[in-house]
Amino acid sequence: MLRLVPLSLAAALLAAPIPAQAAPPGTVLRDGQGHEGTTGQRSGEPRSGEAKPAKPQPPASLDELYDRLKSAEDPVEAKGVSKLIERRLDRSGSATADLLTERARQAMSTQDLPLAAELMDRVTALEPGWAEGWNRRATIFWMLSDKYAAITDLQRTLVLEPRHFEAWAALGRIYQSVEDKRRALECFRRASALYPRMEKLQDAIDRLAPEVDGRDL
C-alpha cells in the first residue's frame, strides 16, 4: 500500500532547490551516439508517485466459497456468494452438455417439458459425473409431477456434490409434499448447515421441528 506524504513535507520537497551540477530527474539526455535517456529513472521502473500495478488475485476456490457462505452474517453477502457457487456448479466441462442444457432450459421456458426431459436425459448420459445435470433433470421431473423420479435424481446429485444446498432444500420440499416430515426436516437442516442465510429455510425448519422433534414442555 502506498503511503501518502504529508502536504507540508510534499510542499517542502517541491520547494527545495535543485543543485546546479545535477540535472533534475526526468531530464532528457543524449549520449555520444544520439541515444536518449532520462536521469534518475531506470528503464521499466515506475515513475515517482505512480502506483505499482496490483497483481491479479486468483479466484476463490469452491471450498473457500462454501466457507464464506457458511460464515456470512449478511443475507445479501450470502446470496452473492451462493450465486458464485452456483456458477461454478453450472460448469459441465463439456460444450455439448452445456448446449443441450441450454436447449432444455429454453424448452422449459415454453413449457415443452417432455423435450426438456429428453434433452437432460442426453446430458446425464453424456456427463454422468456432473452433479448439476442431475439437479436440472430433477427440476423437470418435479414440474412433470414425477416426485419419485425427482427424488432419485436429487439423491444422485448429492452423491456427486454433498454440499449442493439447493438440492438439499429441494429434496426437503419434495419429502414435505409427500408427508415424510422427518426426512424433510433432515434435508432442510442439511441445507441450513451449508447456507444458514438461505431465504425461508429457517421458517420451514421452525414449522417442522415441533412436529418431528416434539414440543418442549
Average pLDDT across residues?
83
Structural class: mainly alpha
CATH third-tier fold name of the domain at 61-89 and 163-217: Serine Threonine Protein Phosphatase 5, Tetratricopeptide repeat
Q: How many DSSP-defined strands?
A: 2
SS summary, helix count = 10
Poorly predicted runs of 5 or more residues: 1-30
Highest-level CATH class of the domain at 61-89 and 163-217: Mainly Alpha
Distance between the termini: 59 Å
Question: What is the architecture of the domain at 61-89 and 163-217 at the second tier of CATH?
Answer: Alpha Horseshoe
- Report the helical percentage: 55-70%
The radius of gyration is: 30 Å
Sum this structure up briefly.
By secondary structure, this protein is an all-alpha fold.
Model description:
Among the domains are: 61-89 and 163-217, Serine Threonine Protein Phosphatase 5, Tetratricopeptide repeat, CATH 1.25.40; 91-147, no CATH class. 60% of the residues lie in helices and 3% in strands. α2 (62-71) runs antiparallel to α3 and α7 (147-160) runs antiparallel to α8. With 217 residues, it is mainly α. It has a two-stranded antiparallel ribbon.
